[in-house]
Amino acid sequence: MDIISLLKTLSETSGVSGYEDRVREAVIEVFGRYADEVRTDALGNVIALKRGTNEMNEMKPRRSIMLAGHTDEIGLMITQIEKGFLHFTEVGGFDPRVLLGQEVVVHGKRDLPGIIGSRPPHVLPPEEREKTIPMDKLFIDVGLPPDEVTALVRVGDLVTVRRELTPLQGDFVAGKAFDDRTAVVAIAACLEQLAGMRHAWDVYAVGTSQEEVGLRGAITSAYGLAPDVGIAIDVTFGDQPGIPAADTVEMNKGPALVYGPNIHPVLYEALVETAKSLELPYQVEPAPGRTGTDAWAIQVTRSGIPTALIGIPLRNMHTSVETVSVKDVERTGRLLAAFIARLDAEFMHRLAWRPAEAPEEK
Amino acid sequence: MILKELSEAFGVSGHEEAVRQIIFDAVRDDVDEYEVDSIGNLITLKRGTGESSLKVMVAAHTDEIGLMVTHIEDNGRLRFAKVGGIDDRILLAKAVCVGDKKVPGVIGVKPIHLQEKKERDQVIKCDKLTIDIGATSKAEAEKLVKIGDYVAFATSFADLGPTVKGKAFDDRAGCAVLVEIIKGGPYPFDLYGVFTVQEEVGLRGAQVAAYAIEPDVAFVLEGTICDDMPKKKDVSPTTELGKGPAITVMDRSFVADRRLVQLLVDTAEELGISYQFKQPLMGGTDAGAIHKTRTGVPSAVVSVPARYIHSPVCVLSKSDFENTVRLMQETLRRLTPAILGAL
User: Fold this and answer.
1) Which residue of B has its CA nearest to A237?
2) Which of B86, B102, B106 to probe the A interface (max A CBs under 10 A)?
């Protein structure tokens, strides 16, 4: 699998939370290459099933694992049209400061390239340049006369940031919506590897919708599938200037295995064991509470699902220059496949909580 | 459209070779003489029909604003300084190209999730930002980049219908107009088409070119401020997109020669070309240097309005561009020594 070209395709496909049709089609196509069946649910989750290898199975019914990577991206929504210029608000969390001077695509009656305009420094008094511009003072220019704009764009239309994937040095790449399309790529890489491996458990590869606005796709897909085990794959904060090292993981040092109340400790241990057996680099990321990822929703689905979380290190999260190491994406896929291949009928017993038994009296 | 090629070329002030080459290739068969002077100006001469003894200089600047690498950190990140006037606020989360190898890089920002609320209200100064080219050490970065390398925004040109978008329309728009003017000749007089360097850092190229040419009259072509977006206060848009070429009466750098302004206006009125006056006192141009050359040169400035200049991406109107070409060509045809005598 060419990870960069798949990431480029998925990253450059638009899919703001709740309006994920295009990226959904792309994910259906990608998962469909490796899965036995692919369907979607009412909230727009893409659910691909790769069945466990039959001859290995005496489990009735077969156990299943759900892999979740969210397909949605943060974006903007038009709130008002003024003299041909478009005012907007955010869908998901944007720092308004990163929007100035960005190129966007306005998804009107047709896709319109646009620019979030900045006033030239020549006309700005020095004190203006010391102030940040709140989102309600920013606007999008699509370069068309006002009457054409009102014919093509209406309030409520979605906007995505425009950025082509940029390869940097080493194996770093930068682009938009790597949160969380890198996870979708890692899951696809896992499915591809599993095609050449034997695995007892059924695998549900889920491209979840609406993560950025409240983990909503994970809530319904986990409920619908009721898997025995869930693993969410999301991006996590990679090292970058201005952030204490304690708050980040390193880039290109392998996936971050998250540890904390959101994570079943035995699943965590099993992932660590798998990474060690593959001699695959990994990092530990402590998460003392809410992880803000699909794992947070999956864990408390129905009567509870043992859940793990893997983080792909990423710089500049929620900007148009999100940066990842391609190797970390590949490693995440490889770790998942090896982990799944090791799952057997007994694995669920390991996950069961048992009170420590009192030592037998002699 | 040569504007696409010019817009996508890299030519930060002091390093305009690529832009100069594109222009040279475009005009070499249309001019009688050319030279590149010591500072890097491309000076072309298109001989006139002999009707007029005037020597007319028309100038546009080839350089653009950008950045320069000032330091390579141990972790491989690049610190930088601004070349020309850039608002720090437009630098966040942009893609750039570094040096002659055009090494791709990005200017990163701390994720919103890790910011404190008050941080979001603060402008991040240029000296707090770095360019990430993906290098993980100083040694790795130094294989590709060196201190002093120029950095330009990575922006592609595109047609938006009635408008186009791209970087550096200040002043590649003027360069493209000047190419069309040269191709539209000959004129009654000798036309010195000058593609200047280092305008953004102090009108450096124009000063020496004007000295060498010693013109009787000069016109400067610009891609100028267009601040016509909605604003709460009733302030001037400086110029407006789609309202035609902008004629300068006065800016921070000079007062336009009133005879030349009148000739421009008369020509536009006669031909029904829409035009506008640029709001006085905004910005400065090569005319600021040219009009004070030697014993003085009557000068005027005509501009294509361009939104968001000095940022990674600008927008201009195709009709404004075409009307600027036409207004300039026709004005030059009507320029006679008698007009200069009429002060």
Assistant:
1) B111
2) B106
**Overall CATH class of domain B2-64+167-341:** alpha beta
Contacts of B134 in chain A (CB under 8 A): 168-172, 323
User: A125: distance to nearest CA of chain B, Å?
Assistant: 11
Q: Which entry of B8, B16, B199, B330 is annotated as an active-site residue?
A: B199
State the amino acid at position A120 in one-letter form. P
> Among this protein's residues, is A211 annotated catalytic?
yes
CB contact under 8 A, B315 and A141: yes
- Tens digits of per-residue pLDDT, A240-274? 998 999 899 999 999 999 999 999 999 999 999 99
Count how many pairs of residues, chain A against chain B, have C-beta atoms within 8 Å: 190
Contact, A284 vs A310, CB < 8 A?
no
Contacts of A235 in chain B (CB under 8 A): none
CATH number at residue A138: 2.40.30.40
* CATH number of this structure's domain B66-153: 2.40.30.40
- Which of B156-184 are b and which e, b meaning 16 or more Cβ less than 10 Å from the residue's Cβ? ebeebeebbbbbbbbbbbbbbbbbbbbbb
Same domain (yes/no): A44, A85? no
Domain containing A130 equals 75-161
Residue A261 placed within a domain: yes
Q: Considering the domain boundaries, does residue A58 fall inside one?
A: yes
* DSSP 3-state of B204: helix
**Assigned token pair, A218:** 């994970």
- Give Cβ neighbours of residue B117 (< 8 Å, ≥ 6 apart): none
Q: Is B77 helix (H, G, I), strand (E, B) or coil?
A: coil
For residues A100 and A191, membership in a common domain is answered with no
Q: Is A123 on the interface with B (CB under 8 A)?
A: yes
Residue A169: inside a domain: no
Minimal CA separation from A78 to chain B, in Å: 15
Query: A290 is written with which tokens?
Result: 């809410």
Going by pLDDT thresholds of 50, 70 and 90, the confidence category of residue B235 is confident
Amino acid at A252: N
Residue type, A127: E
At residue B307, φ and ψ (nearest 5 deg) are: -70, 150
Residue A170 placed within a domain: no
- ipTM, two decimals: 0.90
CA distance B100 to B150: 8
A113 and A215, same domain (yes or no): no
pLDDT grade, residue A305 (50/70/90)? very high
Write down the catalytic residue from A20, A73, A90, A211.
A211
Predicted model pTM: 0.92
Angle between helices B169-183 and B17-27 (to 10 degrees): 20
Q: Do A187 and A314 fall within a single domain? A: yes
Note whether A243 and A153 are same-domain residues.
Answer: no
